Structure formats: structure tokens, C-alpha cells
Amino acid sequence: MTPLLESRPKYKTVSTQASHSVPSTMFSSLPVEIQLMVLNEISSINDILRVRTVNKALRNAASALAFRTVGATNRDHSALNLVSLLESDLAQYVREVVYRDIAAEGEGRAGKPSSTPSPGALPDYGLAVESTLVYALLLAARLPRLTTLRLIFHPELPEARCNKFGNVHLHKCDACAPLHLQCALLTTLETSAPRLRALTLVNLTPMLNDLSMLDVHMLHGSGFSQVFTSVEHLRIGTASWGTESLPHLFWWAVVSRYVLPNLLESVTSLTLVGDGPSICAAIAWEKVALPRLQYLALEGVDVASVWGGDEREKFVNRHPMLECIDMGCGEDRARWTRNADVQGWDAS
Asked: Which domain of life does this protein belong to (predicted)?
């Protein structure tokens, strides 16, 4: 080796893109905010994890990104991995925790089933997985930096569980296993009552409780009142049913009575997800008052037939900070945005 090469400083490099390489010693001297801005340019989680191995300073900065969002599905190894992470020192970096039923896609709709699923790809609703996920949620609720929780349940309700009125009874059978898991996680959320900025509860299934009252298990409990009062961004929705009676009752008896009144002045964005016109028809919009609301989305509704102009206009007049309303699903969508220049609303 030549003396010139021997005298050259030996730097490890951090590559954020193919065209960018920064000496690690120089990178470590940058303010943390700048480090995070650079690392945010890395799109691959595997690359971020590799950055963590360069030195201590990069380990801390990269960990804040790599473990900002963690999650699990209803598979045994996935749930156990989440518990292991939340019990480790890495838990200090976690801001968002996600549970997603593997039958649901990212936004909560039904996924495309595999024609020949492997054993590891099959959902597990057994007691062991349920207990592990409940424990993971308890650990998550204690995280000092937790701001966001997303619970995405099974996207479809087995028709065999409905009676002739469309009400759901919970039985100890395989068809009801996803509902038992939903109840367990919602009960845990109610008892732990974490303070959250953003909450997603998608594919909720109302069931008859012991008093034959329609509810989403414990959604009207005191713990949920505490959860909802701190939430700024709420996304809540129902599973897909073959009947309109149950979702109509869900929006009327559960969301209107227990959820919306507890949002108080904190919520700035609200997304309601359901099939058909039941969202608009069942909610008493004239009683909804969310003074800080800036964004409202009604997903899965028929744009042409619900929430007519007069009712929508009255709602807008009561919410002066509202900037955007989204309605519809897929290609059948409509958007209204506030136009300050003409003191009106533009439709698109």
C-alpha cells in the first residue's frame, strides 16, 4: 500500500441515494434535525437498518426512523416479534403501533386471498395469539412517545353470525373468532386509555351485549371517553355487511351517541368509513359540533344520493375552519375545498 493511501482518513460512508455519500464523522456532527432530514430520503427500511450499524450517533438517528412505526398481524411470530421489540430499548423510538388482520389490506378493505396460501400466511385467532396481542397493546399504551394507534380488524362479517334482524351474536365458534379478538383488543384499549393524537378503528363489528344493546364492545366506556378527548385525527369505520340495518344502527347508536360527542375541540380531521348511504342517513349532522375540524372524509358512500346541499351547507357554516370534504370511493369520488377568494366552495 502506498504512503499516500495509508495517510488518507478512513471514513465509513452513509449512502442515502446512489448519488449521495457523506463521511460518517461529518454526518455525526450535523444537528439531529438535519440527520433525520437526510435519512428520510432513504426509502428502504433495510437500508435504514444498515445505517444503524455505522456508529453510535447514526444508530440513534436511524433508530428514530426505523422504529417510529411498528406493528403486527394475527400470526403467532408477528405478535411475538412485536412484544419483543416493545420490551426492548428500541421501544423508546416508537410513535405509532399498528395491528392489521391479514385478511385486510392497508386501508382496511378485504385483501385478495391467495389461491394456495402457505401455513405461515394463514390467520391465527387462537387464544395464544390473542393473549400476545393484548399484552403488546398494553405495552404500547405505556410508551411515553406513542401518538398513533391503528387497529384494522377483519374486513368482513360472516353472514352466519347475523340473525334475521341483522344483529350479531357472539358464539364460541371459528366463524366468531375474529370478533373475539376484536373484543379483546378494544377492551384492552378501553382499560389502558392511552392519550393519542391519531386513532384508527377500522372494520368494527357491532354486537349485542348482555343487555341486548347494540354496541361496539366497551366503545362507550369511560376509558374510551378519555381516549377520544385527546384525539386530533380519527378514522373509524365498519366491516362489510350484506344488510343495511346493522351499519345504520352502528352509526346512529354508537358513533353519534358515544364517539362524536367525546371528540370535543381536539379533532382536526375525521374520516368515516362504511358501505352505502348509512353514514349520512344515520348521523344527526345538525348536532355535530367540532370547532377545530379542518378535514372531513366520508368513504364508501354514494356521492350522488346522500348528504344533500342544504344539510352539507349548514354543516360547513358551523365549522369555519373546515377546508376540505371528501366523499365517495374509488373513481366515484367528489371533493369540496374552501375558496377564500370567493368566500365559497369549489367542487372537483
From this structure: Eukaryota
Of 176, 203, 198, 183, nearest to 109 (Cα)?
203
Of the candidates 259, 257, 256, the residue with the CA atom closest to the CA atom of residue 227 = 259
Cα 309 to Cα 347: distance, rounded to the nearest angstrom: 12
pLDDT tens, residue by residue, 42-61: 666 677 677 666 666 677 77
Place of cell 341483522: 166
* Average pLDDT over all residues of the chain: 76
CB 153 within 8 A of CB 205: yes
Predicted TM-score (pTM) above 0.85:
no
Q: Which helix (DSSP H) or strand (DSSP E) does residue 230 occupy?
A: helix 222-230
Three-class SS string for 102-119? CCECCCCCECCCCCCCCH
Contact criterion met (CB below 8 Å) for 152 and 108: yes
3-state secondary structure of 275: coil
Are 256 and 283 in contact by the 8 Å Cβ rule? The answer is yes
48 DSSP β-pair partners: none
Rounded Cα distance, 33 and 64, in Å: 11
- Name residue, grid cell 373475539: 180
Query: Which triple of cell numbers denotes residue 26?
Result: 461529518
Side-chain half-sphere exposure of 214, counting CA atoms within 13 A: 21
